[in-house]
Amino acid sequence: MERKFLLIESFISDNNFIVEKEQEDFISYELLVKAEKLNTPTKDIIKDALKEISELDNIYLTINIFEGEEDCPVLKDKTEGDIESFLNHYKIYIDDEEDEEYTLKLSVSKKVHKNKITIYNKESLFKYLKNLKLKETMSVYSKQLKNDVFFMEFLEEVDPVNSSSIYMSKENYFNLDENQIEQIRESRKNNIDIRRKLCNFIGGYSLDYKDFKFNNISDQDINDIFNKLECIMCLIYIGNRSEFINDDKVRISITGQTTTKFELDYKNLVVGESLNQFFKICNWIYEKDGDSVDKIEIARNIISISLDDNPDLSDIRNDLWYSVRSAHEIYLKENVEKYLEVKQEVSKNLFEIMNSIGQIANQIGDGFKTNFIAIITFFISTIISNSTADNRLNNIFTSEITVIALLFLIGSGVYLSLNCYSCKKEIERFQQIYNRSKENYEGILNPEDIKNIYNDDKYLKEDKVYIKKKIRAITICWIIFLVVILVAIYLLGDFKILIEFWEHIKS
User: Are 134 and 232 in contact (CB under 8 A)?
Assistant: First the structure.
């Protein structure tokens, strides 16, 4: 027993003892010691020794001679009353037995509090971890990480080390606040959620590839275990499909340019520097910036080609990480060119739409111009033809010409109304075309790009205001022109036919 447990040590009078069994996991600790001679500790000594045991953990201490003996001292609580009762029983028990070999058995049932558990013997726990199979190891850590962070607090001196979610140190060395824990929780959830969408891990566990990334653990065997777990988890986070063949082997399939399948033997896996590249690749794939789908496809392409002739990972290329990054740079360059083409196309379409909208104002302006010329031409030709006929300048607007002139004005008014209605409908139509053009690029460009290209609809709003003002101005001019012509007809026209027609209707 490298580190004596104070509670047991308080009963042993000398070094004449044998540790028959000492084992520990994340659920319990058990120590079995045999000794020929025992001390009788005081209540205070036992109370001090019990301080070594976490307040939340439950203890069960028995001292007996024969296995299964019923009438032996048992301590199963830390209260003063229980300690006194135990000591009284203990004194009577050892007085009755002389020159016997005693068995002291201490069992500690652990409880997790604020994601922390106490580790009573480092060597025993590490031995337990070394003996676990791959599937058992993943299961154990998946349970301990159900709250996304796990603190292992040792009674012995240990070098403090941690991954993104697992912390190993003396008691209260790592003190994370709620914000830090929440960041860990969000990061793990994000990575696990993305992995579930991109990778099929059959019978898998809720573990993050970062959970086992430690640096410089003093125990080389434990360091190797975590290195192997890190490597396996990274490949699971890259592969298309992963599944357990048995408790110690996992088969991973990666489909890219080719499909490669390989098996990872947990016990015999040797993680060299070349395999550490997979952590860098995973970090790059699952980082918040960038598209994980595109990145993982690029990584799978490069890795599948690299592993095509070497599926056992024994001689993986050292430049794999750089190849993946280079492939991504080429992919981005090609995408940038396509992006610029799309952006140019959007700008061109937008220019055409805005140009078409601008034509609407010209449409009503041209209508006014055509109408104005037609009416003026009519009146000028009427005046000239009537004034030259019989060399007379009076009574140019005969009753027939007056009627025709009024019909011209009515037609012009109707034409004005139709023009205004047509312009309104054209504005609505181009508004729909404009909106559709934005929607068509929503799946290609991100919302900010679309917003910038369309300038947050600034150009459309300005053009609509301009067109409406121009239509309003032309409409007012048109109405004024019609009123002026109407007044001229009223003053110069002969309404004889109209009056007769009216009288005829009335009669």
Answer: yes
State whether 122 and 105 are in the same domain.
Answer: no
Which residues, 6+ apart, have CB-to-CB distance to 43 below 8 Å?
Answer: 80, 83, 84, 87
How far apart (Å, rounded) are the C-alpha atoms in residues 269 and 286?
Answer: 25
- Res 384 pLDDT > 80: no
Expressed as residue numbers, the domain containing 169 is: 116-318
**What's the pLDDT band for 98 if we cut at 50, 70, 90?**
low
Looking at the predicted structure, is the pLDDT value of residue 278 above 80? yes
Burial (CB < 10 A; 0-12, 13-18, 19+), residue 414, is: exposed
Same structural domain for residues 233 and 314?
Answer: yes
Residue 15 lies inside a defined structural domain of this protein: yes
Establish if 1 belongs to a structural domain. no
Cβ count near 306 (within 10 Å): 19
- Confirm if 275 and 231 have CB atoms less than 8 A apart: yes
Residue 186, judged by CB atoms within 10 A of its CB (0-12, 13-18, 19+), counts as exposed
**Greatest mean pLDDT range, 355-369, 465-479, 487-501:** 465-479
Among candidate residues 425, 370, 447, 374, the one with its CA nearest the CA of residue 404: 374
Q: Do 369 and 420 have their domain in common?
A: yes
Confidence check: pLDDT of 1 > 50? no
CB 28 within 8 A of CB 108: yes
Distance CA 44, CA 59 (A): 17
Q: Which residues contact 143 (CB under 8 A, 6 or more apart)?
A: none
Domain boundary among 109, 139, 169: 109
Report the number of distinct structural domains present in the chain: 3
